[in-house]
Amino acid sequence: MTLDTLAPWIAQHPLPLWLCGMALCALLGGLALQGLRALRHQPSPLRRWLHPTSASTLLVMAMAAAACALLAGGAVLAALAESGQATGTWGRVDEAIAHQLRTQASMGDLRWFATVTHLGDSWVLAALTVAVTAALWWRKHRLLAVGWFVAMAGNGLLTKILKDVFARVRPEHVHSAAQADGFSFPSGHSSASIVAYAMLAYLAVRLLPRRWHLPAACAAGALVFTTGFSRVVLHVHYASDVLAGWLLGGTWMVCTVLIMDSMARWRGAPPTLAHQ
To answer: What is 25-35+63-266's CATH number?
Structure first.
């Protein structure tokens, strides 16, 4: 299937593609759960070189170092994904899909995706951040509370920085189903949703009975795909914006989880999964 035939098909069949994508990402969520369980048996590399100090302080310092690495990686991806100037594969894919969605997407599909896109709205995730942080702190899960807050706040800061640095203009959209302002690259909805919902799945694995682990991981994958895919269908983002958001948020979230686990091991209290 060539790009000339693929782009119209995507524009004409967003709901079947969304359902298939959700199923695939739910499967990936289950595989990520298995990978997390395997990592539990590995020794912490931080124990060999960290000096005794506050685990929360070490977490923030390590996340700052990760931010520098993410900015460098984001610069590389942004250079490849700039469809406004690029003549390569990413540029052609972005423009072809955006053009077909402008001309062929039905209003019914747009209304549906305008509803589910709220899963990644700033006010929704800000409220979620405060609620989860407070709940974890109250339940004495202090390291998890700090890690969750740093993951959410840090991702928001990184996304804002990258948007301002690359200043990519959003694709034109002529419908009223959804509105978006600011720059386009990377997608803030995509980066924030993968951090929020993947982190919630991680917390479920840490704190809830085992029977909830797989459903939480699969639900996270489905929600992340739904939020990102909705931004493309609504043509408020290019496809590469969403991919960049997933890359940014996913990498940041993984850094958070690995560092939190290493901190827990270094403190002499290895993280455990609930088995009830």
So the answer is: 1.20.144
